[in-house]
Structure formats: C-alpha cells, structure tokens
Amino acid sequence: MSRTAAGAALCLVGALTLAASPAAAEPSGATADPLARYHHQRLAWKSCLLGPDDETGKELQQAGAQCADVTVPLDYDAPDGRTITVAISRIRATDTARRVGALLLNGGGPGGQTIGDPPWVRTSMKQVGERYDVVGVDPRFVGRSTPLDCKWPTGSFIRGPGADRAGFDRAAVFAEELARRCRTNEGDVLPYVTTRNTARDMDVIRAALGERRISYLGYSYGSYLGQVYATMFPGRTDRVVLDGVVAPDRYGPRLLRGTESANRHALAGWAAWAAARHTTYGLGRTPSAVLATIHRIRTAAGRTPLPIGEHRVDEQVMPVVVFNGLSQDNDAAYAAFAQAVRDMRRAADGHAVTPSPWLADTLDFFLDGSESSYGSVQAAILCGDVAAPRDPETYWRDVQRARTQDALFGPVTHNITPCAFWEPPREGPTAIRDDLPALLVNATGDPRSTYESARTVRRMWPSSRLITLRGADQHAVYGVFGSACVDTTVNTYLATGRLPSTDLTCDRPSG
Q1: I want to staple 48 with a disulfide (CB 3.0 to 4.6 A). Which of 67, 232, 370, 471 is the partner?
Q2: Which of 480, 484, 488, 475 is nearest to 507 (CA)?
Q3: Which residues are 159's β-sheet partners?
C-alpha cells in the first residue's frame, strides 16, 4: 500500500465457515531439505526501472533500491514441478555495524503491490531505517511477480445488491460470471493462490536473502499474512508490526461483515466536515443535510443509472463508491470524496458531468477491466483461503436482515461474491498460534479492520502490545496518518526490539 493509496489497495473485501480442518505449522525436522534449491538460490539484483514511464521504478531507483526475482514452486507439495517468480525490491542497510536484518513489507489487499513501498517506509523509519534492509514484496501473482488475470470487466467483485430481489439476482449472475472467467483463464493455478503459499514464499525469500530470521511490517490483510507466517514458521520472526489488524476469526470472503458501524461513523465524520464547507461543495449546511444528499443520490441511481463521464453509476455501484471513499481520515481524502459526491449529485440532477480525478479513477477501477488483475488475485486469495456459503439464498437472507440495520452499507458487506461459485480450498485456513510478542497498531474508527479485531488479536497474544490511535476513522496508521506518537513508538520498537511495557493510547493529532 503506497502512502497515498486510495481504497483500491486497501482491505475491501468481505470470513466464514471453514471447509476443512485448520492447518498447522510447517514441519521443521526433516533431515533433507526438499526446498534446498530455492533456499540457496543466488538472487540477480538489478535496476528496478522498467522503462521511462515506470514511476514506481523511478522512486525505487532514487531511493537506492535494487530489485530481484525469487523463484518459488507453484505447488509446495511438488517442489520439483512448475515454478513461478516473486518480485522483490530492497534498500540495503547503511548502518552495517548495527544492522538488525531484513524487514519484509506487505501493504494489504489482498492483491496489493508492495514492491514500491520501501522508499516511504524507509523514510518513516527515520534513523532506525539505516539499520535494516527494507524489502518490498509483490506476493505471488501480484504486480511484477508471475501474473494472474481472469480477464474481468472490473477491478473488484464488490457490489451492492440493489434494492430488491431482481437486483440481488443480477449481482449473483455477475459474481458467478467472474468465478467462471477465473476458472476459464487461470484455473490451473487458482488452487495455489493462497495466504499459506504466500507465507511459504516469504520463507523462501528469507532463506534466499541469507537471513535466519526476518522482521515484518504488515498492513490490513498484511496483518493476517504476518499471523500466518509467524504460525507456520515459528522462530523465524524477529520484530513484528501489524497495522490495521485483521482478526483471524473474521478473515475470509465475507471479511467486511461487521464493519457497518465503523463506516457509518466515518461517513458521519465526513458529513460534518463537508457541512462546514458547504460554500465549497454545496452538499448541505448541516451533517444531516449532507447525509440526505447521499440518500438522494442513492435513490436516483436506483431509478436510472447516473451518467458520469463514460460510465453509468447504478444502485449496485453507487454504495461501493461511498464505501471506497471512507478509509482515510484527512482533509485531502475528505476533499476528494466531497468532489465525487458533488459530481454524483449533479448527475442525479440531470447535468452532464466530467468526473473529478478521484471519482474518475474509482469508476475506472470498478467499471472497466484495467485493474482486472488486482480483483482477480484478491478473489483468488480470499476464495482459496476460506470456503464460502454456496447457496445464494444464504446471502439474500443476510442482505435483507442487514438492510434493516444499515440500508447503505449493510447490503454491500453481506452481498454474494464469486467465492460462492469457487472450487473448495485446497487447504484449510491456518490455526493461528497462541501467542507472539508483536506490536499491534489500530485506530479506534478504522472502517476496514475494526478496532475490535485488533483487541481480539491482543487478547490472543498476551505478550503483544497494542497502540491505539484514538479519535480517527483511519485505516493504516504508521507512516501514513502523521501521528508522531504512533510513529515514534513503532520506531523505538524497531530500534530496540523491546515492546512498550504496557498498551499505549495516542490521541489524534490536533489541527
């Protein structure tokens, strides 16, 4: 997740009944290493710049990073079979006398690229960054790694179900078609697109880097990946920071269930901000008037899709646009979302609209195939990790119940997904270990990974510590939100390896 990432690179998806028994840690006592050729491979480091238009490569090059491709088996049960590559970047430690080791990054998604993150993470680490090799990883099938693309007409499977049974049925047909495209275009690799295999890849990366243990910084879905890695490979983690924490009992295809209250709170916070700027955006002079504008837009989109630029925003897309605008709690994100709501209101009033930049990018993401690979990998990981209910009636009943509690967000978070039409997972989900001394970070109003999820993991891991950012509706905090209290605490832990003596609460910065 880049520092400025919008909703597309965050945890957007939606946990569930388990189809198989929980899986345990990897065996560690084998005398012969079946992965020896992967563990001892020599990495060919090279420039990260792919061409003159490669902005990520330029940022990496300016930061002194190099890139390499790590070879891993597609199927760890058949390590002599087909291989794929996992792309990594690295900014090497400059304080070699006090070098700690490698810090691997994952920015979430699932399906988000992380290869470009070392420069801004290294900056956030301040002087302690000089003591680490900061390593970005595009997980298997993501970004610069061996690609996966189901040829979807969208970058996300998330949709609202509409207002009635006919709308839900259209959503079910859409979800089934997305699943069919994945079987048709990528069916041979889908069983291996899982968090457990990504964790196995991480351990190959660890070995190929020549590290006995690795430190880890994971955001959002990356927090769950960190839990899985630490469970499967006990003793191979050093300093672990999990930010925007996903509780393992909440993880799965229906992960977004339970986030409705946090999203309502975030929407109310934004509405108060917009009301105070009515002269700029014209959305209403009071928070209730701004929320009424949202309701009016949703009603209009339910009657007739709203023409915005080259796209048509219907009752299934409009709530997702709103949902996508509520993960970052700052003036820039609020302003971009306010411009988007103004555009949608003008379209609802019958005006021709050229969308503002954030709305244009969001509609492209949801309504054309330019980000098909992102959505394909996200679905493949979620559906391949945890089995979903297969009967559409289960989702319809859940949508109807949720609608009575939250007409805007409830139907979205409970709607049917392609996982209802997926092949059962090849492995059961990981039974997360009982304890780990990790540093957990979460905002109280996180609309994606709720604060209660962080508290759940804190209870699971009594030797861990939790940094709470109070008073912010923010997803991902360290190095992103601008809290000196949070950033200093994380950097002190990364520098010393010592967790705070107690949990810590940081107040939202004033101003």
Answers
A1: 67
A2: 484
A3: none
41 and 448 Cβ atoms separated by less than 8 Å: no
- Over 50: is that where the pLDDT of 478 sits? yes
- The alpha carbon of residue 164 and the mean position of all alpha carbons in its chain are separated, in whole angstroms, by 30
Does residue 447 have a pLDDT over 50? yes
**What is the rounded CA–CA span in Å between residue 179 and residue 76?**
24
Nearest to 142 by CA among 222, 217, 209: 222
Instruction: Specify the pairing of strand 214-219 against strand 237-243.
Output: parallel
Report which of 157, 156, 109, 164 is spatially closest to residue 137, judged by C-alpha positions.
Answer: 109
pLDDT band per the 50, 70, 90 thresholds, residue 244: very high
Query: Residue 388 in contact with residue 254, Cβ under 8 Å?
Result: yes
pTM (predicted TM-score): 0.95
User: Average of pLDDT values for 22-45?
Assistant: 81
C-alpha–C-alpha distance, residues 115 and 145, integer Å: 10
Amino acid residing at 86: V
Among 394, 457, 422, which Cα is nearest to 176's?
422
Query: Are the beta carbons of 253 and 384 closer than 8 angstroms?
Result: no
For residues 76-103, give the mean pLDDT: 98
The residue with tokens 């270990």 is: 433
Torsion (CA) 12, 16, 19, 24 in degrees, nearest 10 = 80
The burial class, CB within 10 Å (0-12 / 13-18 / 19+), for 69 is: middle
Which positions ≥6 away from 208 have C-beta within 8 Å? 38, 39, 40, 41, 43, 70
Res. 510 pLDDT band, cuts 50 70 90 = confident
Query: End-to-end CA distance of the chain, in Å?
Result: 25
Q: Write phi, then psi, for 345 (nearest 5 degrees).
A: -65, -40
DSSP label of 430: B
Q: How far is CA 124 from CA 129, 373, 487, in A?
A: 8, 29, 7
Alpha helix locations (H) across 233-330?
260-275, 278-281, 287-303, 318-324
User: Token pair of 435, please?
Assistant: 């304890």
Query: Whose structure tokens read 């269930």?
Result: 257
Q: Is 300 helix (H, G, I), strand (E, B) or coil?
A: helix
Angstrom distance (rounded) from CA 485 to CA 465: 15
Residue-wise pLDDT for 387-403, tens only, equals 999 999 999 999 999 99
SS3 346: helix
Question: How many helices (H) and strands (E) in the chain?
Answer: 17, 11
pLDDT class of 199 with cuts at 50, 70, 90: very high
Question: What is the C-alpha to C-alpha distance for residues 458 and 454, in angstroms, rounded to an integer?
Answer: 6
